[in-house]
């Protein structure tokens, strides 16, 4: 191949790849539809289809080298999908924790709940701010909460490994403010007692979090009263009476944060304005959706970048594997292709046919990799020290349709590049040389 | 060795195929080099030889709970204790809260316990004299372009000063050079400030120490000393948990992610694919050379030497690609650490990684070369020449 052809191809590839990355799923469907229409309706299209059919029918005889393409791409897609599913699961867990109709108030400039502190006066003033929903008795739905960390032994650990869990001290108001929380085993803790209501995710990670069990936090003994579920990040926490927590950890009457239920989702602006207008308060306020969304940003893009870097390097490997296989396939059929061209087939049908063949293999690889990742990792429980929290967050990997589509896109892109160069070589090789070869 | 030329020639008999295969192998081992560096940096954080002599004492309750200042003097009294120092987490960030810096507020004798950090005599004196002075790791200074004498604004993501502002200003008094390559990534990115200045400035510390670091006189006594330290505060409101530095760091790292498991599974997928790929190449290479191999056999080459030659070819292919891959990983590692903004600081490819990598290359080469080599050995001259 001439240097100029290769350079032109590379340029074309770069443009196509950028367009491909930006393409939504329906765009790909439209492209596939257009291709099918061209192959059915036009003459060169029908020729391409028949050449492709011949190539595809011989795939079985080249099982070993075809498997290289399929398995190589399946590996890339599997790893990529697993990493993206991890990022997705993590972000989703935190996103679900927030909502538009609840807001969280922290001391001004606090990076995290645990670093914030609000004295009793501020807590009372925040609760009296207009915009907060009220219960049947006319009490504002504002939950002042204390947040501390506690070390607990990790389940199934060898030796005496301990992990950190976020312990949240809550009052009576919390059940109305955080209505997603429900007790699934045992009962709620009794106010004033050293009793814990533990999240389902925490119970999964740490040893001894079973109703009726006693556990030690520092030098104190606590009784586990029950287990709660909330399907969000709160599940990774353990809860107790706010006063008991404050007393045990010497926090007095101050609390870390106040979470309020707003009168409605539109009340936030007014609520925020009222808080900021109060000269006695120095606070930051945001909707919980915003608050938890921001917390997940750093970590989930971190996981995503790692996934893409690893997937990218693997993709280079798989791409060259595909190139190798397809060059071999084209070489084996060099005479056949030259014959076609000698009897009047143009270059385009040949290029399209070889591309189709490679992309079919790539698609098979992508589907295989995506399916494997889905089977192995969808719902797989993972945990990490979450940003903005002092406890381990447990979350499930989530293989979403979007993630799978991303994986398929990568597979098809690898297949396209892997097929393009061999296809162009087959179509541009002088007919006489090809016929004389071998 | 005398067949080296022959093996080399047959390896590059089909240039395109060999080069394409080589690139795949390079990619696989590049990934191996990078991931193994990350894994090692997680596994070896705080594992320097001196780490065995150091015990960390933190609150039994949680890592955010502080300990009373008076405990230090009592730990010093425990038999077998050489030096006691203490530190607090500062949670610093430079310019952007995402640019996190490993920063500790430390006692004046902190550096005595960490011989891995070397600071010149003059700079150490300057640090001791400057209330707002800080010592910064060489890598950290390079990352932000800091020089000795610079005045740097920092934010603490945890501690405000008395007015409630989280902006702090420090003066760079000196640079920390690391003397131990194993833990270099860790100390290289560290910032140390004065505990006294920290405690005076923030109203939230109230004379507490975050954790104590104890250097024991005799490593073999470490367990006994750890138990004795924990016994000091048993049944008080500030019970402690004392671990060797290794154990403490390992359990801390484990809370973030089981890096070893992730790396192993990714590399498993990579090498499985690679085996298939290079195996296919070797099969093709031997298949199309059937004729030549038969000729070689005719002129007197034994079956075993043909087998050895095919195996050598596969070893050469893998080792060539693998070595290039790991060599490529070396300059990329600092780039990655930069891209991750110091969240992890992977160490350069260690000797152990090289050994492991080369072991993998040889193992894969043997596996993928076995079948073609066997075929070459059992080749029947008549059949091969007759293309049957």
Give keywords.
heterodimer; A: 438 residues; alpha+beta; 2 domains; 55% helix; elongated; B: 388 residues; 6-stranded mixed β-barrel
What would you say this structure looks like, in words?
The complex is a heterodimer of chains A (438) and B (388). With 438 residues, chain A is α+β, with helices and mostly antiparallel strands. Chain A has 2 domains: 3-95 and 296-436, no CATH class; 109-281, no CATH class. Helix content of chain A is 55%, strand content 17%. Chain A has 14 helices and 12 strands. In chain A, strands 1, 2, 3, 4, 5, 6, 7, 8, 9 and 10 form a 10-stranded mixed β-sheet that branches. A two-stranded antiparallel ribbon of chain A has the order 11-12. Chain A starts with a helix and ends with a helix. Chain B starts with a helix and ends with a helix. Chain B folds into 2 domains: 4-44 and 258-385, no CATH class; 61-238, no CATH class. Chain B has helices at residues 4-11, 15-44, 71-77, 110-113, 121-129, 138-144, 184-187, 195-201, 222-232, 245-256, 259-288, 290-298, 303-339, 351-378, 381-385, and strands at residues 54-59, 81-89, 92-93, 100-106, 117-118, 133-137, 151-156, 167-178, 190-194, 211-216, 240-244. The model of chain B has no long low-confidence stretch (mean pLDDT 86). Chain B has a 6-stranded mixed beta barrel. The radius of gyration of chain B is 29 Å and the shape is elongated. Chain B has 15 helices and 11 strands. By secondary structure, chain B is α+β, with helices and mostly antiparallel strands. The interface between A and B is large, with 50 and 57 residues.
């Amino acid at each position: 191949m001439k240097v100029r052809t290769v350079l032109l191809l590379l340029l074309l590839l770069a443009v196509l790849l950028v367009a491909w990355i930006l393409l939504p799923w329906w765009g790909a469907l439209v492209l596939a539809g257009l291709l099918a229409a061209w192959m059915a309706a036009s003459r060169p299209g029908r020729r391409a289809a028949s050449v492709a059919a011949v190539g595809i029918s011989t795939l079985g005889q080249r099982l070993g080298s075809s498997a290289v393409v399929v398995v190589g791409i399946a590996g890339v897609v599997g790893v990529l999908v697993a990493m993206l599913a991890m990022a997705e699961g993590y972000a989703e867990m935190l996103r679900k924790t927030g909502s538009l109709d609840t807001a969280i108030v922290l001391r001004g400039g606090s990076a995290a709940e645990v670093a914030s502190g609000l004295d009793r006066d501020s807590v009372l003033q925040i609760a009296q701010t207009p915009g907060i929903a009220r219960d049947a008795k006319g009490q504002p739905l504002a939950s002042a909460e204390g947040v501390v960390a506690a070390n607990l032994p990790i389940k199934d650990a060898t030796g005496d490994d301990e992990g950190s869990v976020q312990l949240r001290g809550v009052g009576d108001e919390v059940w109305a403010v955080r209505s997603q929380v429900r007790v699934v085993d045992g009962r709620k803790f009794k106010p004033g007692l050293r009793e814990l209501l533990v999240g389902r995710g925490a119970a999964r990670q740490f040893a001894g979090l079973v109703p009726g069990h006693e556990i030690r936090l520092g030098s104190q003994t606590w009784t586990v009263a029950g287990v709660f579920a909330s399907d969000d990040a709160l599940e990774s926490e353990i809860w107790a009476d706010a006063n008991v927590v404050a007393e045990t950890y010497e926090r007095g009457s101050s609390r870390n944060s106040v979470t309020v239920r707003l009168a409605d989702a539109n009340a936030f602006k007014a609520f925020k304005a009222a808080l900021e207008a109060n000269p006695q308060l120095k606070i930051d306020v945001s909707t919980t959706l915003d608050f938890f969304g921001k917390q997940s940003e750093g970590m989930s893009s971190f996981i995503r970048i790692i996934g893409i870097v690893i997937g990218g390097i693997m993709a280079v490997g798989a791409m060259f594997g595909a190139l190798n296989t397809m060059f071999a396939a084209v070489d084996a059929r060099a005479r056949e292709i030259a014959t076609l061209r000698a009897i009047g087939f143009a270059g385009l049908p040949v290029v399209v046919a070889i591309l189709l063949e490679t992309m079919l293999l790539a698609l098979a690889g992508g589907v295989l990799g995506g399916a494997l990742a889905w089977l192995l990792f969808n719902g797989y429980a993972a945990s990490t020290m979450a940003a903005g929290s002092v406890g381990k967050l447990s979350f499930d990997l989530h293989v979403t349709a979007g993630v799978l589509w991303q994986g398929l896109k990568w597979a098809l892109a690898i297949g396209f590049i892997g097929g393009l160069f061999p296809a162009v070589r087959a179509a541009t090789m002088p007919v006489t040389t090809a016929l004389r070869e071998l | 060795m005398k067949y080296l030329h022959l093996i080399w020639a047959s390896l590059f008999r089909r240039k395109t195929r060999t080069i394409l295969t080589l690139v795949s192998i390079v990619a696989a081992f590049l990934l191996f080099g990078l991931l193994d560096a990350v894994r090692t940096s997680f596994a070896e954080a705080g594992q320097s030889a001196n780490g065995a002599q150091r015990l960390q004492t933190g609150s039994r309750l949680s890592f955010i709970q502080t300990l009373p200042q008076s405990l230090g003097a009592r730990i010093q009294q425990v038999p077998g204790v050489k030096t006691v120092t203490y530190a607090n987490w500062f949670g610093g960030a430079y310019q952007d809260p995402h640019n996190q810096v490993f920063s500790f507020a430390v006692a004046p004798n902190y550096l005595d316990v960490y011989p891995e950090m070397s600071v010149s005599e003059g700079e150490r004196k300057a640090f001791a004299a400057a209330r707002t002075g800080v010592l910064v790791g060489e890598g950290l200074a390079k990352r932000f372009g800091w020089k000795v004498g610079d005045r740097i604004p920092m934010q603490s993501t945890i501690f405000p000063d008395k007015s409630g502002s989280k902006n702090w200003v420090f003066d760079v008094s000196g640079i920390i050079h690391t003397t131990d390559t194993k833990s270099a990534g860790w100390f290289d990115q560290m910032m140390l400030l004065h505990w006294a200045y920290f405690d005076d400035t923030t109203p939230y510390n109230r004379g507490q120490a975050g954790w104590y670091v104890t250097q024991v006189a005799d490593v073999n006594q470490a367990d006994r000393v750890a138990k004795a330290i924990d016994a000091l505060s048993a049944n008080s409101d500030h019970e402690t948990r004392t671990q060797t530095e290794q154990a403490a760091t390992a359990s801390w790292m484990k809370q973030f992610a089981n890096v070893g498991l992730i790396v192993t599974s990714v590399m498993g997928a990579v090498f499985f694919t690679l085996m298939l790929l290079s195996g296919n190449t070797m099969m093709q290479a031997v298949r199309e050379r059937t004729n030549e191999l038969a000729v070689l056999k005719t002129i007197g080459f034994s079956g075993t030497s043909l087998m050895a030659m095919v195996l050598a070819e596969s070893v050469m292919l893998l080792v060539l690609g693998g070595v290039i891959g790991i060599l490529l990983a070396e300059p990329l590692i600092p780039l990655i650490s930069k891209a991750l903004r110091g969240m992890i600081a992977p160490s350069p490819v260690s000797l152990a990684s090289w050994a492991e990598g080369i072991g993998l290359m040889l193992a894969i080469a043997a596996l993928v070369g076995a079948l073609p080599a066997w075929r070459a050995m059992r080749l029947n001259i008549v059949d091969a020449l007759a293309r049957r």
